[in-house]
Design brief:
436 residues, mainly alpha, two-stranded antiparallel ribbon, 74% helix
């Protein structure tokens, strides 16, 4: 059987738009959707190409599903194909969550809106726990990697260690261990690669330069017009930094982002941060789109010299740009190196321990999220270097607990689709709030 010919550009646009509109369910569901559409049904890329590209994307910071879409577009139609596939993967979800953010900004104080989000947040708690279980089953293959996951959780939960320090530290340890004791990481030996073509330095440097200029261009405009003290500059700078350390997907950085956005920047409350995660789970596209919600509220609440709505939209757009523009930079600059990166044993070791640390990071997110959802009040306690927010037991919300348990059974045990569970949880929140 002969392989089908590559699609023309209009066909790539049509299928990419379809994937962007249907990409619910987080990275696992999005990658499965792309595999079905592009490998099984249309055979535009082979199984081996798809898996190699997926492994390559997991080496990069940022949402792996979107980077995989960019790579497939690049493979089929070069840079314009990568731009089209990557943008269409993000734009549908970005438009939906922008509309929901606008609604939230104006209606969050209404009783029915709060009841709706009570159920959604409780269901999202179950989704985050499912993410921990899935990643742990895949990433913690050896006792050493399990130990790194536990240490990462304790560093974050007990000592409030900075997320970038935990991730970079794990990567550095993985690099060293892969050199001396790769068996501790469960790494398989790699075969030497005979390079038939010269290293594509020129292409990578050209792509990186153009990508960097595109990435920083809006920030230069904000700096020139509004200055360093304006909230838009602080939004752009914060999420630009975040884009560089987002190894392990959106769940890995959400706790760090929440800590900074809530406690350091005071852009929104912890409960509102939890609401944003619930919004992101109900929309297509990468879960990291929750950053747009944070950027919208931050600018909406400090709008001068704009109106609140205008400032919020500008904040959301700037956040989306600095979050996703780097994805195109990484893929276009590094895609020609995919075979070499696949055989880089030390890089694999670094990534293995970063992924292990991410299990601890997401477990910390689960604990933070559970406290925010299940209890109305927390009490800060310190024991030397240990700083904890302990729940006030009398503030336990039985409604959220009941919905969380039911959603956990449906998603983890019964393996029901996420979107119907979220809808039922939202309806349950509205009904249970009527019970005194």
């Amino acid at each position: 059987m002969t392989a089908p010919s590559p699609p023309d550009f209009p066909e790539l646009l049509r299928v990419s738009a379809r994937i962007g509109c249907l990409s619910f369910g987080g990275p696992a569901g999005q990658i499965a959707l792309m595999h079905r559409e592009l490998v099984e049904e249309r055979r535009w890329v082979s199984e081996d190409q798809f898996l190699h590209a997926l492994n390559f994307c997991r080496l990069l910071p940022g949402p792996e599903a979107q980077q995989l879409a960019i790579w497939i577009g690049w493979k089929l139609h070069g840079v314009r194909g990568g731009l089209a596939a990557g943008l269409l993967f993000v734009i549908p979800g970005a438009l939906v969550i922008l509309a929901l953010s606008v609604l939230y900004g104006f209606a969050a104080h209404l009783g029915w809106f709060a009841a709706l989000f009570l159920g959604i947040k409780a269901a999202v708690l179950a989704i985050v726990v499912q993410a921990v279980l899935r990643l742990a089953g895949r990433a913690l293959a050896t006792p050493f990697r399990k130990g790194v996951a536990v240490a990462s959780f304790l560093a974050l939960f007990l000592f409030n260690a900075p997320f970038p320090l935990v991730v970079i530290g794990a990567g550095a340890i993985g690099w060293l261990v892969a050199r001396q004791r790769p068996d501790l990481l469960g790494l398989k030996p790699t075969t030497a690669l005979v390079h038939a073509s010269p290293a594509p330095w020129r292409h990578s440097l050209w792509s990186a330069g153009l990508g960097l200029l595109a990435w920083v261009a809006p920030m230069v405009g904000v700096l020139a017009v509004l200055g360093k003290e304006h909230v838009l500059w602080r939004i752009g700078l914060f999420f630009s930094k975040l884009a560089v350390v987002t190894f392990g997907g959106a769940y890995a950085v959400l706790a760090y982002m929440a800590q900074q956005a809530v406690s350091a920047q005071h852009w929104l409350s912890a409960s509102e941060m939890a609401d944003g995660l619930g919004l992101a789970e109900t929309t297509p596209g990468p879960l990291i789109m929750v950053t747009q919600f944070v950027g919208y509220l931050a600018a909406f609440r400090a709008p001068a010299p704009f109106t609140p709505l205008t400032a919020g939209i500008l904040g959301a757009l700037l956040t989306t740009w600095v979050t996703f523009a780097p994805c195109f930079l990484w893929v276009f600059a590094l895609a020609p190196w995919i075979e070499r990166l696949e055989r880089a044993q030390l890089l694999k070791g670094a990534l293995a321990l970063v992924t292990s640390a991410v299990v601890g990071v997401i477990t910390n997110l689960s604990a933070w999220f559970a406290l925010q959802v299940l209890f109305r009040a927390l009490h800060p306690v310190t024991f030397g270097p240990v700083a904890l927010n302990l729940p006030v037991l009398a503030s336990f919300d039985w409604r959220a607990g009941l919905i969380a348990i039911a959603s956990g059974w449906a998603i983890i045990a019964a393996r029901k689709p996420i979107i119907p569970v979220l809808i039922l949880a939202a309806i349950s929140g509205c009904l249970l709030i009527l019970i005194p």
